[in-house]
Amino acid sequence: MNSKSKKPPLTNLSKRWAIWLGSLVAVLGVLVLLLTQQTVAADIVVYKSPTCGCCGKWVEHMEKAGFSVDVENMHDVAPIKRELGVPGRMQSCHTAKVGDYFVEGHVPADLVKQLLADKPDIKGLTVPGMPMGSPGMEGPRKDPYNVIAIGKDGRARVYARR
What we know:
By secondary structure, the protein is an alpha/beta fold. The chain has one domain (44-161): 3-Layer(aba) Sandwich (Glutaredoxin). It is built from 4 helices and 7 strands. It has helices at 12-39, 53-64, 78-84, 109-118, and strands at residues 44-48, 69-73, 95-98, 101-105, 122-127, 146-151, 156-161. Strands 2-1-3-4-5-6-7 form a 7-stranded mixed sheet, with helices on both faces.
């Protein structure tokens, strides 16, 4: 065998450089992964008053259902409601943007998932007011309520009954 084709054995210094370089590559890989995960948009952006407890409970309900949620605390949510087209008579305490839809008030997570799966031709869903027993409004009783779909023409129809 030709002695010129043999590679020289790694010295201790070469081994240290190889370990250091490998560690650097691993750390950079982890940083890239973390930065990538932080720049992924949340599934839901919720606009709410910073002092509203039931809104915070609805956010927790959505997170427990597997949604990632960004919360925008603001003292006046009315401009967001107008921008998204939530009719005045259908408003509640918080407004969320989910995909191409608005979700107004205490809409259950399973119906938001259904909305995203079915992709109906509507502006969004709303639970007007703050009915007892709806997600975030748990309490001593559970009142029946309707989840309303708001069409692109502004018409309202019952989407689900709870």
